[in-house]
Amino acid sequence: MSTNEKLRVDKYLWSIRVFKTRSQASDACDGGKVKLNGATVKAAKSVNVGDKFEIRTPARKWLIEVTGLLANRAAYSEAIKYYIDNTPEEDKLAPAFTPSVFQTGKRQSKIGRPTKKDRRSIDGFMEPEEEEA
Question: Which long-range contacts (CB under 8 A, 24 or more apart) does 76-79 make?
Fold first, then answer.
């Protein structure tokens, strides 16, 4: 990419594979999850070499420094050449927050109320057998 071309923040973050889709990158910018040199940034802002990003994704937190501009999405092995990852190790390895009790409103399979098959076997077990004379 030549030096006079401009590259949007959302397109850059998508191309270096921080986000899976460009719309996710744009939504993160709009939601205040992306900071450029300490200030929240809109998706259309231009990226320059030397900029420092602080990004919060659902999976992890990123602290990156731009070393080159990549306009189109490339393989991960190529994409990592365009930034320096300054993220502390504890933020790289920290799993996303998972609540201790996960309640979706639906019961888990095979737990709770018996199925029709279970009910039939219970009924058969509970009924006294007919004695033949």
Answer: 76/17, 79/15, 79/16, 79/17
User: What domain count does the chain have?
Assistant: 1
pLDDT tens-place string over residues 73-105: 989 899 999 999 888 877 766 555 555 555 556
76: which residues sit within 8 A by CB, 6+ positions away?
17
Residue 54, domain CATH: 3.10.290.10
Q: Kindly report, residue by residue over 63-75, the tens digit of the pLDDT.
A: 999 999 998 998 9
52 pLDDT more than 70: yes
- Structural domain contains residue 17: yes
